[in-house]
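hey can u check if this looks right to u? its 163 residues, i copy pasted from the old doc so theres a chance i mangled smth
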Amino acid sequence: MKLSLIAAIDRHRAIGYQNKLLFWLPNDLKRFKALTTGHTILMGRKTFESLPKGALPHRRNVVLSSSQSLTLPGAEVFHSLQEALDACHPDELVYVIGGASLYQQALPLADALCLTEIDAEAPQADAWFPPIEPNVWYEKSRDARPADEKHPCPYAFVDYVRR
C-alpha cells in the first residue's frame, strides 16, 4: 500500500477554517480529482461532513470516527487509523485528505505528500498541516503557477517523497 497525504496549504501551513477550504483554486480541485479518482481517500468524520454532496464518486471513501454506531452513505467507517489501513490491499493507493489531526497521525506512516502550496496567507484559519521536516521529506517536483482570473494568488503543485 502507498500512503500519500494530499492538501492545499497557505504560507503558514493553514488548511481550513470552520471546516471549509481557505482558497477556491479550480486547478487544485482538478488535480485532487485526477490524483484520487479510482483510489482510496481516507478522512476524518468532519472532513466527510464538509463534502458538499457526501461521499466522493469513483473513489473508495474511508472515514475515521470514534463513534461505534456511525454509518455514512457511500463510506466505510473505521475507528482507528491502523484499523483503516489494515483494511486496505497491499497494492492500494490511499490518499489522506484531512483533517488536521488525521494528517498529524498519518504523517509518520506516509510515503508521499501531494501539496498545493499557496503563496498567500489565509485571513482566518483554525486547522494546520503538520510541519514538513526537510531531513525527512525530499521535494521531488514543483509546478509553479501564477495568479490569474480564476486563481486569486500564485500557487505550486509540490510533490514530496520520504528520504
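DSSP finds four helices and ten strands in the chain.
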